[in-house]
Amino acid sequence: MNGRRLADKVIVVTGAARGQGAAEAAALGHEGATVIATDVSGGDGVRRLDVTRAEDWTGLAGELRERFGAVHGLVNNAGITWRARLGEVDPNDMARVQAVNVHGPLLGIQHLAPLMPPGSSVVNVGSSAALTAHYPVAYTTSKWALRGLSKTAAMELGPRGIRVNTVHPGFIETEMTASAAPAFREANIRETPLGRVGAVGEVTPLVVFLLSDESSFITGAEIPVDGGLTSHGGVKSVSDTLLAETA
Ligand SMILES: NC(=O)c1ccc[n+]([C@@H]2O[C@H](COP(=O)([O-])OP(=O)(O)OC[C@H]3O[C@@H](n4cnc5c(N)ncnc54)[C@H](O)[C@@H]3O)[C@@H](O)[C@H]2O)c1
């Protein structure tokens, strides 16, 4: 896609060195946005920003105020996982995941919203884990908290014409999911009505839409991009079992 749906918009993407963030930054750029791709690791064309560090956000906000005078979009995409289960998870790891997945988006909104004119848009990247009892408890609780932050931010910023929405990816092929056990991938495919995993390019069109003026009356919304994974409440296996018995 190569259009002008985001012309004249300055948009910040976090965690944009790889995976979904890199794909989102590229897609937003293709639609004419001036994209500030950021990541804790920095990199080619990627500005270094650790979402957990308030001073990093202060520096970025100052720079953007100077250069552009305004920011029209923020994609809170940076996130980490930690796969310890309930019985053994360390509270320090709970805090570390929370710092990136929840405090990061909060700091981003706190520092950039003051630069946002009416019509601006924030997209938070949640997860199917935010809609279910996903087993990695640090990650799951952080993504549920991010839902709460998104709802509150939509309410608080609505009167200023700033929209806040959440996308919930299911299993998307990136380095994050590549680090999981093969059984995790297979189990996800089994529970996904479309019967496959997703690609980063299947998330980006929604992110572009939510950043564009086409979604001007959508705020506080949560949209799964998960092949139907979270749509059946976990009972697909019941349906599949009965189907197999009658086959
Ligand atoms: N891949 C999936 O299946 C999936 C599913 C649901 C949700 N998500 C969410 O999508 C988002 C992107 O994930 P991905 O799959 O592209 O993962 P990824 O691990 O490939 O990329 C994450 C990026 O975030 C960056 N990052 C980590 N900590 C950071 C910090 N403190 N400050 C700034 N950047 C930091 C990393 O350097 C990396 O570039 C995450 O929020 C993740 O939780 C992913």
Automatic annotation (TrEMBL):
Residue ranges spanning the membrane: these are none
Short name of one Pfam family: adh_short_C2
Query: Does the keyword section mention Ribosomal protein?
Result: no
Please give the coiled-coil regions recorded for this protein.
none
Cited SUPFAM superfamilies: NAD(P)-binding Rossmann-fold domains
Gene3D superfamilies hit by this protein: NAD(P)-binding Rossmann-like Domain
**Where does the secretion signal sit in this chain?**
none
- Alphabetical keyword list: Oxidoreductase
Q: Which PANTHER family match?
A: 3-OXOACYL-[ACYL-CARRIER-PROTEIN] REDUCTASE (PTHR42760:SF133), SHORT-CHAIN DEHYDROGENASES/REDUCTASES FAMILY MEMBER (PTHR42760)
User: Which family does the similarity line name?
Assistant: Belongs to the short-chain dehydrogenases/reductases (SDR) family.
Entry protein name: SDR family oxidoreductase
- Organism (species): Streptomyces durocortorensis
